[in-house]
Amino acid sequence: MVSRGELFRECQAALEQAGIDDARFDTLCIFQDCLGDRNPLFSPLEAVPLDAEAAICSMTERRIGGEPLQYILGQWEFYGYPFKVGAGVLIPRPDTETLVDSVIRLCRENGITSPKIADLCAGSGCIAVTLKKELPLAEVSAVELSQEALPYLRQNVAMNEAAVTVIEGDVLAETTAARLSGLDIVVSNPPYLTAEEMADLQTEVAREPEMALVGGDDGLGFYRTLTPLWRRSLRSGGYICYEFGMGQHDMIGNILAENGFENIKFTRDLGGIVRAVTAQRSEENNG
After folding, report:
1. Residue 206 — pLDDT band, cuts 50, 70, 90?
2. Weakest mean pLDDT among 17-26, 46-55, 128-137, 205-214
């Protein structure tokens, strides 16, 4: 049997040769998963059982083929919570933690202890579940249309023991928006990639569901529809909170202002990119 250290070097070299970024990190994650050991290299001379070796080699080959690491592992962490992921659901990303931070800060700064929240385009449920865990008194609904993503959403709600209501529906439809009213907060990480960006996707990102990525020619299609539609589901003085792509903040701000929102505040992610916005529905704008 091959040793841990030897097999690790072989797998890392294979990923590097395939042009995989962060080959060492990916190899480490695969070893941790297959060996059930958070520090698999602490015992580099320990022999790898044949079944574990086969699993490691299989996962490495899948990664070389361009499959996202998160899909291969079947689970990924977001905000410290575990989320099941796989083909058909968007992978939770650190950028989206910026949006969650914005919502939590909004609630705490404004003394909103039991907000009524709707998460639109919920996908894996990482936003909805995290908000429910971090704001235990919140009433959270997660709205998703994709038949591929819904099973992951329901599984993640159950796995994290989060009392989140799952709603199957099209967030762009008036009938869906009409099902929720008196909301304190609407939060969404909608599709926002432009046509140009879709044509130049990384191999791994191209494996993720297109309907969770495509935002129209300029990436702003969902924001133009969601903002006026879901404003009517907000209470007067309620908030809408969005994630968006790099360089889209000015246009997002204009869309919000044109639809009766004020107190528009942007937040940068850890990379310094303006990534999230919170905006308040004007108290006097009741249309």
Report:
1. low
2. 205-214
Q: How far is CA 156 from CA 30, 84, 99, 123, 167, in A?
A: 22, 6, 19, 10, 14
Contact between 209 and 149 under an 8 Å Cβ cutoff? The reply is yes
Paired strand residues for 266: 277
Distance between CA atoms of residues 8 and 24, nearest Å: 9
Structure tokens at 269: 């992610």
At residue 238, the 3 state secondary structure works out as strand
pTM recorded for the entire structure: 0.92
Give the up-direction half-sphere exposure of residue 89: CA atoms within 13 A in the CB hemisphere.
Answer: 28
CA count, 13 A, side-chain hemisphere, 23: 16
In the numeric block, which tokens belong to residue 87?
A: 């083909």
229: how many CB neighbours lie within 10 A of its CB?
19
Specify the 3-state DSSP secondary structure of 260: coil
Mean predicted lDDT score pLDDT of the chain = 93
Contacts of 58 (CB under 8 A, 6+ apart): none
Averaged pLDDT for residues 19-41: 96
CB distance 262 to 279 below 8 Å: yes
The yes-or-no verdict on residue 115 having pLDDT over 90 is yes
